[in-house]
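Exercise: predict the fold of this chain.
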Amino acid sequence: MIKDYFDFALKGLFHKGVRSWLTMAGIFLGIATVVALISLGQGMKDAVTKQFEMMGPDIVMVMPGQGFGAPTASKLTDHDKKIIEDVADVDLVAPMITKMSQVEYRDKIVYTFIIGIPTDKAMKLIEDMQYVKIREGRKFVPSDKNKAIVGYRIATDDTLLGHTVKVGDRLLIDGRDFTVIANLETFGNQQDDQQIYVPLETAKDLFGTEEYYVLMAKIKPGSTPSLVAEEIKKKMRRDRGQKEGDEDFSVQTQEQMMESFGIVLNAVQVVLIGIAFISLLVGGIGIMNTMYTSVLERTQEIGVMKAVGARNSDILMLFLVESGVLGMVGGIVGIIMGLSISKLVEYLAVASGNSGLIEANMSPSLIFGALSFSFIVGCLSGVLPAMQASGLKPVEALRYE
């Protein structure tokens, strides 16, 4: 019996031809948008999670103000570094300075981020945290001054500075002469791949500052990151004479940073998916309109079916299944479109050198969920027309012109 319902629905689908596809347009556009957004959003979450896992769970980040990129008048200095180092469960503290600077090579000038990092044992923490890997050349040593390690793009892409920059080449950073001692493996995105690393003390002198962009603390084995973070907060508040909640600095564990990123990404996804649902609503109204038309076109057919013994429930089910099939076929097309869009975005990101955080995650649950949802939308859109069809009286239906 169920097979008959679907046969009837598919017959009606092909009978309507172009009208069926126009009816499903709203459904598959909405589903395509939802699938593409969720696929890319989940892929981005997975990529960021991998990055955090590479950092390790034993890292606590201390930043001025409310975190990365937030404008603030507060500062982090060697004094704060000493306070953090004095916390019992802190093993090592690595400071970092960063600033957008002018870089000149063979009369070609670009602006990029210059990052000052330690040259002592704390350098290992930066390497692990930033996932910095030497491709050619050597690492910094404590005696290095005007030395530079350039990103992958600077070393391999001649469109940035007019020429590729090799180990041993010299370039000017804010007018000062630097010798390139190494280049790095790719990070997977253009911005990171065109950064330049210099010794921390050189960066302080170059930028004329003693302030740090971030202090990264590695905790001792067996310690709990959240407890160490609270102890760092407590000591820094006491030193600055601040009350809890009034801090002009931020202390975050890896878990907290992942949660913060997840909240922002989820909020963006909810807004965009909400917009996509408007398309689904329009698609549902289109299905309802088509089903009402179908009831009118098949009024005599309904009369014949009732005359030969079809029950109201049979007629109701026939039209519900037909509207559900309209939604499901629209969902199938939408899923194919959505996955194609997400893979295209991933491909373009890879082709442009920005593959670090842009991936498409195509989970079976996403495909099944989208397909089920489109079928349900179709069925719900067909409820009223199906009730109208089932309520027709056989005699009146047969006499309908």
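Check your answer against the key: The mean pLDDT is 81.
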